[in-house]
What does this fold into?
Amino acid sequence: MAEKREYRMEELARLAGITVRTLRFYRERKLIPPPRREGRIAWYDDHHLARLRTITALLERGHTLNGIAELAEAFDHGRDVGDLLGVGGPTEEEPVHLTPEELADRYAGEATPENLAAAMELGYLGTDGEEIVHISRRLLDVSSALVHEGIPLAEVLRAAQQVRTHADALADLFTDLVLRHTSAQDLPRLRPLARSVVEAELSLALDRRMRNQAQTDIHSIGSPSD
It folds into this structure.
């Protein structure tokens, strides 16, 4: 295990590429946690250094100090990733570790405090030290792709809340079906069947929706104009 390093204010500022005056300003704005005090000496550690480098990266991406302060507060009070995933709980999803600046890049400037708070409320995001953890690589990739297609992240998250409601209902339906005829021990083995049914039904539903939309477009083009 790597030895924990601590730094005096001047050394920390130098390593972070900022001035001591800027460091004091960030501390006064509560952008970084308070240092450890030993008499009149303030000691900072690698968590402070990581936070300062994150602040610099977010500023370079156009975030304001007020926005960064709100992000820092959200992450400092966010749920630990262990609370989201559960220790040893079954899952087929792959969590993804991200720095705040990587998350900002993923969402093309839409990683606002409001959107991240909504993602945390949904249980998509948790914290692991100075890193952010998204609980599902698949959901992260899809939501990021939708944002890059021009769909606002706030609307993606609102849709995700509705999907969550339907997904919970489907999970209850499948679980009840299995438990009526087998046992709880069979749920992990039969789980892929439930996913296949949902994927197939969603695919068929999208087929129907796109056919209906195509017919609507044809009728609209063929309608006489005023």
Remarks:
- The chain is about 65% helix and 10% strand.
- The first helix runs from residue 9 to 16.
